[in-house]
Design a protein that fits this description.
The chain is α+β, with helices and mostly antiparallel strands. It has 19 helices and 27 strands. The protein is globular, with a radius of gyration of 23 Å. The structure holds iron/sulfur cluster.
């Protein structure tokens, strides 16, 4: 039996990536490159819809971008000067082709395709209402709800219908939409998930991260603002703000872990933010040690910041194997035990006899941390002090990040001292929430009006969790919407 994630690396997972381009002769080919740069935001399925005048062409598949679009016959079919693309991560079981985006439907005004990064928190409620009114859903994604709301909207134009639909949804969404002669980009009023606008020659580009602009040689124009909807057509970029204003709550975890370090949001470099977080961590949780060692790759920038601030030498005491496939033969428990070694190996030439500060970005269930600490000890480290560049993850995310249920989060179950014992470290410390905000250039977290979404550390959810609350009282409803995240 084939399976995915047999050797779970115990990380939260970003669920989707977006890319869109308007008015370019190589629209589909540039979309492939953009999606390739955004592969870290979703590895299990990918798709592109292109538009050639009034005609739409789609290719969607389970798998990664490089494999899916390597066939020249696939690319030859994706004609037109406009295209949108999507990468998707989903837990095993709900990665079925009908859920792969961009989704596409025919309306009376013509075709419309949509890609979504985020999670709608009232999609289940809306879906139930619409099924009662006669809607026939074809996927289990929350994103499809937007199409059904558009179908019954009173407004005539595609834009009126998108706005009317989005005014009824709650949750986190960045969207790219494609209609004949028009590319649309939207961020929810809180701006939880990212979306940036770029330019290459006379063409405009939308992407989840700036690294997708870099790969095609586009320049970054700006972030799409929270609550902003942009329409890109033959006359340029038009911006409207059709929603009631809300407090800006960009996901702070994008800076800690999800985004690529060479991306920028809100005029901040993700790499520099991670270094500053590491430096702040060293100020807050210093320890006598001989070496600072990152858990690669995501722990590297914070470890560099920690080393610079503390004056303790940085060294690559753990080597990562980049060639671990996503799909493996189902392992036996005995083989599974070695799983972490497929991805990481401790370098005893560096670690032997040393007091080591291990820097990682988060602890979710604690399974991988436990194995890495054990591996570093076996390589001869005299002491292992774990430092984490996020506050303890005590709550689940409902805004487009795949997280285990709260009961499975180690920080929900245990105190920091208990967690240190659990993972077998000599000491364990996390950056404080105010330290994290200082690293982001704020003086502290504003408790009344937090400057970011930090709900997985604080439980302070900025957007109503309507479906979760309904599920709590009517558990049978969850069956209706298994795997509905985008
Ligand atoms: Fe990001 Fe955490 Fe908020 Fe989810 S709950 S959007 S991961 S900060």
């Amino acid at each position: 039996m084939l399976t995915t994630h047999p050797f779970d690396d115990d990380k939260l997972k970003e669920e989707c990536a977006l890319f869109g381009i308007f008015n370019h002769s190589d629209a589909a080919a540039l979309t492939v490159l953009g999606l390739h740069a955004l592969q870290h935001r979703g590895q299990e399925a990918t798709g592109i819809v292109s538009c050639d005048g009034e005609r739409f062409h789609a290719h969607r598949a389970l798998g990664q971008v490089g494999d899916t679009f390597a066939d020249p016959r696939v690319m030859a079919g994706l004609t037109g000067r406009a295209a949108i693309g999507h990468n998707r991560y989903a837990t095993t079981g709900d990665t079925v082709l009908r859920n792969v985006q961009p989704l596409y439907f025919d309306f009376d005004f013509g075709g419309f395709a949509l890609g979504h990064n985020g999670n709608l928190t009232n999609a289940l409620q809306l879906r139930r209402q619409m099924i009662r009114r006669g809607s026939l859903f074809q996927s289990t994604t929350d994103t499809e709800t937007i199409f059904h709301l558009m179908a019954v909207a009173r407004g005539g134009s595609v834009l009126d219908r998108v706005v009317e639909a989005l005014r009824q949804v709650e949750g986190a969404y960045s969207l790219v939409g494609l209609a004949a002669g028009m590319l649309i980009g939207v961020r929810d009023p809180y701006g939880v998930r990212p979306l940036v606008l770029g330019r290459i020659g006379d063409s405009f580009v939308l992407a989840s991260e700036t690294c997708a602009l870099d790969i095609i040689g586009a320049t970054c124009v700006r972030d799409i603002e929270p609550g902003e909807l942009v329409v890109i057509d033959s006359s340029g970029v038009h911006s409207i703000r059709p929603f009631a204003p809300a407090e800006r709550r960009f996901c702070i975890f994008e800076y800690i872990y999800f985004a690529r370090p060479d991306s920028r949001f809100e005029n901040r470099s993700v790499y520099e933010a991670r270094e500053r977080i590491g430096a702040e961590l060293a100020r807050e949780a210093g320890v006598d040690a001989d070496l600072v060692v990152p858990v690669p790759d995501s722990g590297v920038p914070a470890a560099i910041g920690y080393a610079k601030q503390s004056g303790i030498p940085f060294s690559l005491g753990i080597i990562r194997n980049h060639y671990v496939g996503r799909t493996f033969i189902e392992p036996t428990d005995h083989i599974r035990h070695f799983g972490v070694k497929l991805k990481h190996n401790a370098n005893s030439a560096v670690l032997k006899g040393k007091r080591v500060v291990l820097v990682d970005d988060s602890i979710v269930r604690g399974t991988t941390s436990t194995k890495i600490v054990e591996m570093v000890r076996q390589a001869g480290a005299a002491e292992v002090h774990m430092r984490i560049s996020s506050p303890p993850t005590t709550h689940s995310c409902f805004y487009g990040i795949d997280t285990p249920e709260q009961e499975k989060l180690l920080a929900h179950r245990y105190s920091v001292e208990e967690m240190a014992k659990f993972i077998g470290a000599d000491s364990l410390a996390f950056i404080s929430i105010d330290g994290l905000y200082r690293a982001m250039g704020e003086t502290a977290r504003n408790a009344q009006h937090p400057q970011f979404c930090d709900a997985c550390f604080t439980g302070d959810y900025p957007i109503a969790l309507t479906d979760r609350d309904q599920r709590a009282t009517q558990p049978e409803l969850s069956l209706l919407f298994e795997g509905g995240r985008a």
